[in-house]
Design goal:
The chain has helices at residues 2-12, 44-95, 102-107, 131-142. By secondary structure, the chain is an all-alpha fold.
Length: 143
Amino acid sequence: MIADEEGARLKAAFKARPAKILTAAPFTAKKSTKPLTEIRHFNKEERDEKRKEQRAQLEAQIAQKRAAMAQMAEAEAKAKAAKAAVEVKAMRQAMVHKARSANVLKHAPFVAKKAPPSSLTQPISPDFVTKARGALRTCDAHA
């Protein structure tokens, strides 16, 4: 509120001042103290030759990296194949039958097992149709 009152008071107390801009000298820019930019002729051939050399170096680096990667992959494949061959050889060696020594048999000779004390299970023919189910079937058929 106080700011509004002060703004209104300033507007009421406005007095016009003389326009100095109409009589003042116009704006003039100062001269620059920096040296002028040196203009050189653009030589496209030199730039093309330089760029061609850079590109050739880059291509050589890329080819070198690819060759190194291929060599590493080949070495890795050879190592993997050699490891697989060793594993197959070890597995085949482990699968060869080895006879037991006779000393084992001397200490514990083969003993046939005795029959169990209980009787063996007697097979019984399955009775698929019992009397109760048979009677149910005949009742359902008549109904």
